[in-house]
Amino acid sequence: MPSQLDSRRASELRASLSAVGPTLDAEMRPRITTIHSNSAALASQQADLTKQTAKLQKESAQWQKMADNSRGKLKELGDFENWAEMLERDLQVLEETIRIVDGKGTDQRDASNRMANGNSGYENGYGSGYGK
Protein backbone atom coordinates (compact mmCIF):
# COMPACT_ATOMS: atom_id res chain seq x y z
CA MET A 1 0.00 0.00 0.00
CA PRO A 2 1.26 3.33 -0.84
CA SER A 3 1.76 5.46 2.10
CA GLN A 4 0.90 9.05 2.41
CA LEU A 5 4.60 9.97 2.10
CA ASP A 6 4.92 8.04 -1.14
CA SER A 7 1.88 9.67 -2.55
CA ARG A 8 3.14 13.11 -1.63
CA ARG A 9 6.52 12.37 -3.26
CA ALA A 10 4.83 11.13 -6.39
CA SER A 11 2.78 14.30 -6.67
CA GLU A 12 5.89 16.46 -6.09
CA LEU A 13 7.65 14.50 -8.82
CA ARG A 14 4.73 15.03 -11.20
CA ALA A 15 4.71 18.75 -10.39
CA SER A 16 8.45 19.12 -11.02
CA LEU A 17 8.20 17.17 -14.26
CA SER A 18 5.33 19.40 -15.34
CA ALA A 19 7.50 22.44 -14.66
CA VAL A 20 10.46 21.02 -16.62
CA GLY A 21 8.41 20.48 -19.79
CA PRO A 22 7.64 24.13 -20.49
CA THR A 23 11.22 25.13 -19.57
CA LEU A 24 12.71 22.68 -22.07
CA ASP A 25 10.08 23.62 -24.61
CA ALA A 26 10.99 27.31 -24.22
CA GLU A 27 14.68 26.53 -24.80
CA MET A 28 13.96 24.37 -27.87
CA ARG A 29 11.52 26.69 -29.66
CA PRO A 30 14.16 29.16 -31.01
CA ARG A 31 16.30 26.24 -32.21
CA ILE A 32 13.34 24.60 -33.88
CA THR A 33 12.41 27.89 -35.55
CA THR A 34 16.00 28.29 -36.82
CA ILE A 35 16.03 24.74 -38.16
CA HIS A 36 12.77 25.29 -40.02
CA SER A 37 13.93 28.60 -41.53
CA ASN A 38 17.27 27.03 -42.51
CA SER A 39 15.41 24.14 -44.06
CA ALA A 40 13.36 26.53 -46.20
CA ALA A 41 16.52 28.40 -47.24
CA LEU A 42 18.23 25.11 -48.13
CA ALA A 43 15.23 24.02 -50.20
CA SER A 44 15.35 27.34 -52.08
CA GLN A 45 19.10 26.99 -52.67
CA GLN A 46 18.61 23.42 -53.85
CA ALA A 47 16.00 24.56 -56.38
CA ASP A 48 18.34 27.32 -57.61
CA LEU A 49 21.21 24.84 -57.84
CA THR A 50 19.05 22.43 -59.83
CA LYS A 51 18.12 25.21 -62.28
CA GLN A 52 21.73 26.35 -62.61
CA THR A 53 22.90 22.76 -63.16
CA ALA A 54 20.36 22.27 -65.94
CA LYS A 55 21.45 25.57 -67.49
CA LEU A 56 25.11 24.54 -67.27
CA GLN A 57 24.36 21.18 -68.89
CA LYS A 58 22.62 22.93 -71.77
CA GLU A 59 25.51 25.37 -72.19
CA SER A 60 28.01 22.53 -72.00
CA ALA A 61 26.13 20.68 -74.74
CA GLN A 62 26.25 23.83 -76.89
CA TRP A 63 30.01 24.17 -76.33
CA GLN A 64 30.49 20.50 -77.18
CA LYS A 65 28.50 20.94 -80.39
CA MET A 66 30.59 23.99 -81.30
CA ALA A 67 33.83 22.09 -80.59
CA ASP A 68 32.68 19.16 -82.74
CA ASN A 69 31.71 21.55 -85.53
CA SER A 70 35.08 23.33 -85.30
CA ARG A 71 36.90 20.00 -85.36
CA GLY A 72 35.03 19.13 -88.55
CA LYS A 73 35.92 22.49 -90.09
CA LEU A 74 39.60 22.00 -89.22
CA LYS A 75 39.50 18.55 -90.81
CA GLU A 76 37.98 20.07 -93.95
CA LEU A 77 40.70 22.74 -93.94
CA GLY A 78 43.35 20.02 -93.67
CA ASP A 79 41.71 18.16 -96.55
CA PHE A 80 41.73 21.39 -98.58
CA GLU A 81 45.42 21.99 -97.83
CA ASN A 82 46.21 18.42 -98.86
CA TRP A 83 44.24 18.90 -102.08
CA ALA A 84 46.07 22.18 -102.79
CA GLU A 85 49.47 20.53 -102.23
CA MET A 86 48.55 17.68 -104.56
CA LEU A 87 47.36 20.18 -107.17
CA GLU A 88 50.60 22.14 -106.83
CA ARG A 89 52.68 18.96 -107.34
CA ASP A 90 50.62 18.06 -110.39
CA LEU A 91 51.14 21.55 -111.81
CA GLN A 92 54.89 21.29 -111.20
CA VAL A 93 54.96 17.96 -113.06
CA LEU A 94 53.02 19.53 -115.94
CA GLU A 95 55.33 22.55 -115.96
CA GLU A 96 58.42 20.33 -116.09
CA THR A 97 56.85 18.21 -118.82
CA ILE A 98 56.14 21.31 -120.92
CA ARG A 99 59.67 22.58 -120.29
CA ILE A 100 61.11 19.26 -121.48
CA VAL A 101 58.84 19.24 -124.54
CA ASP A 102 59.90 22.79 -125.45
CA GLY A 103 63.55 21.73 -125.14
CA LYS A 104 64.58 24.19 -122.47
CA GLY A 105 63.98 22.07 -119.41
CA THR A 106 66.53 19.57 -118.36
CA ASP A 107 69.84 21.25 -119.25
CA GLN A 108 69.14 24.54 -117.49
CA ARG A 109 67.27 22.93 -114.62
CA ASP A 110 69.93 20.25 -114.05
CA ALA A 111 72.64 22.90 -113.97
CA SER A 112 70.72 25.05 -111.50
CA ASN A 113 69.96 22.02 -109.31
CA ARG A 114 73.62 21.02 -109.30
CA MET A 115 74.66 24.53 -108.30
CA ALA A 116 72.01 24.70 -105.58
CA ASN A 117 73.25 21.38 -104.17
CA GLY A 118 76.88 22.52 -104.22
CA ASN A 119 77.71 20.21 -107.09
CA SER A 120 79.42 22.03 -109.94
CA GLY A 121 79.58 19.04 -112.26
CA TYR A 122 83.36 18.74 -112.20
CA GLU A 123 83.39 15.88 -109.71
CA ASN A 124 83.12 13.19 -112.35
CA GLY A 125 86.81 13.15 -113.14
CA TYR A 126 87.54 16.66 -114.32
CA GLY A 127 89.28 18.49 -111.59
CA SER A 128 88.43 16.14 -108.76
CA GLY A 129 91.62 15.85 -106.85
CA TYR A 130 92.98 18.99 -108.43
CA GLY A 131 94.69 20.89 -105.70
CA LYS A 132 94.68 17.97 -103.28
Please write out the topology:
Blueprint: H1 4-102, H2 106-116
* β-strand amount: under 5%
In whole angstroms, the N-to-C terminal distance is 141 Å
Supply the number of helical segments: 2
Question: H/E element string?
Answer: HH
Instruction: Tell the overall outline.
Output: rod-shaped
Integer-rounded radius of gyration: 49 Å
Roughly what is the average pLDDT, rounded to an integer?
Answer: 80
Biggest β-sheet strands, sense, barrel: none
Q: List low-pLDDT spans.
A: 120-132
Q: Level of helix content?
A: over 70%
Q: Please count the beta strands (DSSP E, at least 2 residues each).
A: 0
Structure explained in plain terms:
By secondary structure, this protein is mainly α. The chain is built from 2 helices and no strands. The radius of gyration is 49 Å and the shape is rod-shaped. 0% of the residues are buried.
Please supply descriptive tags for the structure shown above.
mainly alpha; 0% strand; disordered C terminus
